[in-house]
């Protein structure tokens, strides 16, 4: 995944065929408002965490068709020559607003709102959904894991359990969701994230003895490194580790077996050997339920892989991108809606607020109506506006990109979760932590 990679073909073909037809019949320049939302959370989940909007802004900066892209569209006869000419000068000039990264979302939350001409908005559909669906799924799973870990650091080790581009996205989303670092060096470089990692079992197996392996690692990385102690016999490995590094050994890692029982034995052994400050990290197919079961174990940090990058069983948030308002032939903005069975939408652009009682959120309020109606709407005093503006008149607000934006989202997630009723942190299946009320003006 290269920084300069174009994103304009990260789309479904029908976005371009719709553009072509709309340019032909004159509707392509009609003003439109599209909205991203999900009709439901994954079964039993109490909330979701928005992640990926910063990546969307990065992608929007690279949303330009190269000569080879245009040639591909022409050679395949996907669009007409006239549309190729239009695409040569494409640049998004509209407005994008929505929930900030790290914010909680619920069914029917208007997570992202895109306003512009039909031509420029329709081309973004697949890109927006692919980023938000995956990143928010990972961040939501990460948040549940961090809660279960009771503030013990969780680290992303999922790069080898997904494709190479998703691994980088997952690292970023994991930090938004509350994780503290990543093993993925490209993600660490791109987003200035803390990188973690020392050695795998193969390093121990490479050497003639475990002692030789430990000595080599300490010689290279220092006594503060973390030694992997379950290649052979854990008790012997811990003893050897302390003999080689001394009581100043930084940490040990356990990657197999009954992690709670082993952590207890290792902690007692380390203390008996005088290595009281040596930390214990555990890995091995952890999820939020496994982390919850380890709350009473003397574990200092966790490495999480497969279940993180797969959303812990919910690898997508089922988000959709729907047209909610469009300009009619008379130039008047008109709310529109689908009436499809089980897929009906609420007409009109939206505002979103969250109300509070005794400093706890008690309801999500979605207000739908025309631009004029929403401009005149007055929320109640205890309602918090959930929208921020990411792009105005085609100009990106760069404060929502880069390392600082990720860390701001990381902190905001923790604050937003604390504002929800405590039932939000339950791993038991249940309804969303707060209800969503939709009002059509």
UniProtKB/TrEMBL annotation:
Catalytic activity: 5-phospho-alpha-D-ribose 1-diphosphate + nicotinate + ATP + H2O = nicotinate beta-D-ribonucleotide + ADP + phosphate + diphosphate
Enzyme Commission number, as recorded: 6.3.4.21
Molecular-function GO terms, alphabetical: glycosyltransferase activity; nicotinate phosphoribosyltransferase activity
Pfam families linked: NAPRTase, NAPRTase_N
Pathway where this protein functions: Cofactor biosynthesis; NAD(+) biosynthesis; nicotinate D-ribonucleotide from nicotinate: step 1/1
One of the record's GO cellular component terms: cytosol
Signal peptide: none
A GO BP annotation: NAD+ biosynthetic process via the salvage pathway
Domain spans labelled Nicotinate/nicotinamide phosphoribosyltransferase: 154-322
InterPro entries: Aldolase_TIM, N/Namide_PRibTrfase, NAPRTase_N, Nic_PRibTrfase-Fam, Nic_PRibTrfase_pncB, Nicotinate_pribotase-like_C
UniProt keyword Glycoprotein present: no
The entry's keywords: Glycosyltransferase, Ligase, Phosphoprotein, Pyridine nucleotide biosynthesis, Transferase
Function description: Catalyzes the first step in the biosynthesis of NAD from nicotinic acid, the ATP-dependent synthesis of beta-nicotinate D-ribonucleotide from nicotinate and 5-phospho-D-ribose 1-phosphate.
NCBIfam families to which the protein is assigned, alphabetical: NAPRTase_put, PRK09243.1-5, PRK12484.1
Similarity remark: Belongs to the NAPRTase family.
Protein's name according to its UniProt entry: Nicotinate phosphoribosyltransferase
Organism: Bifidobacterium mongoliense DSM 21395
Organism lineage string: Bacteria, Bacillati, Actinomycetota, Actinomycetes, Bifidobacteriales
